[in-house]
Amino acid sequence: xxxxxxxxxxxxxxxxxxxxxxxxxxxxxxxxxxxxxxxxxxxxxxxxxxxxxxxxxxxxxxxxxxxxxxxxxxxxxxxxxxxxxxxxxxxxxxxxxxxxxxxxxxxxxxxxxxxx
Length: 116
Known about the structure:
This protein is of the alpha+beta class. Helices cover about 30% and strands about 30% of the residues.
C-alpha cells in the first residue's frame, strides 16, 4: 500500500462497503486534486450508505477541488475541509451540503499530545 494519505483514504473508503454515517445520501462526488499542473480525479459513489470509489469519469452532483497537499492534510486529520473552504483553499461546486456529508467520512484531528 502506498504512503500517500489521499490514495490510502480512497482505498480505505472503497473497502468499507457500507457506512451508516451517510445512510440517507445518494450522490456522486468528484474530487479534483491539483498537483504539478495536473488534476487527478477520484469519484465517490454514495448510495444510501453503500460506498464505491472509481476514477472513471461520470457526472457528479458535487465537485470538491483542492491542492493535493491540502487534501493529504485533510484526510490525515491535520486540516479541516470546511475551514479550508471558508479560506478559499478548497472549492465546492454543485451541492455544497455534500462536503459536510463527505467530511463525516474523513478521519478526525490527530492529537499527539494533550494540551494543558
